[in-house]
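quick one, 136 residues, struct below
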Amino acid sequence: MTRNNNIDKTRASGRGLGSRPHGALLALLAATALAGCQREWVKPGASQQDFRTAHARCEADAYQRLPAATVPQQITPAGYTSGGIECTRNSAGGNDCKQKQVWRDATYTTRDANADGRSALIRNCMIQSGWTEKGD
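---
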């Protein structure tokens, strides 16, 4: 059985992380920053409001430099799967059984291709602003 699947191959507009020369470095920094435990930002003499202000400024700058870039991500591939056993009586009184095959379309979700890069930019901005990460 031939099946024609019209899979949307449209690429999201906007720049992905890999489109910039420093994309691989940002991805590596983000992966390193996100590995491990939850972190808290500290700065001697700074209040919670100071943190919120600094973080909002850094986040706005990061979104300006690396806007959201929604791209499709495949969750499960398309293909045939077992649909159970199908049996029919044959002329000799026995059963002829065969495995039923069912076509399943691929399933997709979306993700922001620039999320990791933005996280690295925010972290760098916070460090440049005098904040330090404190691990739990």
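Residues 13-69+113-136 form one domain.
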